Amino acid sequence: MAEPNVYDSTCSARDALELIASKWAMLILPALSAGPMRNSALLRKIGGISQKMLTQTLKDLERNGLVIRHDMQTVPPHVEYRLSALGNSLSEALIALDRWAERHSGDLDAARERFDAGRTEGV
Amino acid sequence: MAEPNVYDSTCSARDALELIASKWAMLILPALSAGPMRNSALLRKIGGISQKMLTQTLKDLERNGLVIRHDMQTVPPHVEYRLSALGNSLSEALIALDRWAERHSGDLDAARERFDAGRTEGV
DNA sequence: ACAATTACGCACCTTTTGGTGCCTATGAGT
DNA sequence: ACTCATAGGCACCAAAAGGTGCGTAATTGT
């Protein structure tokens, strides 16, 4: 327990990894790095996410101290989400990943095409 | 299509993100960054992974050009996996994430405890 | 008076993910 | 002659992820 190691499945670092290795967390945290956002704004910004997954992921991130939820206690509801310091430090690493994905998605596409073509052309 | 954006669910960068936002890819790629490895070595190094998931993930990574599979064509089989240049550039970002997880898993644990305690203590 | 808005909760259902056990082939060790 | 190790494939099954539709409470706009 002294030296957390992600390769050890019993280590809590593994749990941490699973939390952040989520498609939605990888988008929500970087989205919040620009500043606090409301539910509806996140819903608009992150294409393809459902209300359910947004709420669920935000709650999970809040529970783990990465996101801070601020409920204005008004009706109709006004709730803002922002990064904690911890969340902010993580989102830097996630932004790097997102950028990598944006920059290299073309390479992946090309590799996939090559691979699949090779498979059908036989030996 | 000119500017790939991960927030756009129809963009191929999103597919790229989903590929790398996988628990196992996040461990396999960094593991390979130390040098080529055999199936059995990876199985030993990465605690908790099953043979099935290892094979499956490696195949997916190979298909997308991140990992190169080198089959020695011997019996008993000897197969080595190593990172491509593309895979290597990605693994740097992943290693940063793994390290974050190792360094901050304690913070996450603490936050979770606090959160859950608050929930049970009532209003 | 009536609809829309906001940020969800809940239940139901489908899809995906992942685990397990069983199978292959051959050469090396006993 | 027999077993072990290697790198998987394949089929079956359990579990988890995720989508959709419905309800909610009060206030603002028409």
Automatic annotation (TrEMBL), chains A, B:
Name the PROSITE patterns for this protein.
HTH_HXLR
Q: Does the keyword Transmembrane apply?
A: no
- UniProt cross-references to InterPro entries, sorted A to Z: HTH_HxlR, WH-like_DNA-bd_sf, WH_DNA-bd_sf
Keywords of the record: DNA-binding, Transcription, Transcription regulation
Sequence ranges assigned to domain HTH hxlR-type in this UniProt record: 11-109
Protein name, per record: Helix-turn-helix transcriptional regulator
